[in-house]
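User: I'll paste a sequence; please echo it back and then give the predicted structure.

Assistant: Echoing your sequence first, then the prediction.
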Amino acid sequence: MLQRGTPKLDKDGKPVRNAKGKIVYEPYQIKVFNTINFKKSMHYNPFAYLHSEKDILKLVTVLIANTVKGKGSSIMENKANWHHKVPTPEEYETIMKDLKTAEEALS
């Protein structure tokens, strides 16, 4: 997840602006939120920032937007046709093996 940096401030405490007049921000900070192994989450808990329904919708949007479709399956990853398809028994076995391998790699 990315957290937008704060605006850079000048010596008077006012936001610094670039040549086009836009506010200059500090760099983004990358924060890891690992739902499989919370020890790898950099002590980042996005749920602590949820105070309204709007906050919940923002978090859900971020999580969905940054999700790789079919991640962990060699036959499904980044393949849009899996949104409307039921796997055959053979495909199901492959998917389950792939997911087990991915889960073991996270442990």
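The longest strand covers residues 2-3. The chain has a mean pLDDT of 82.
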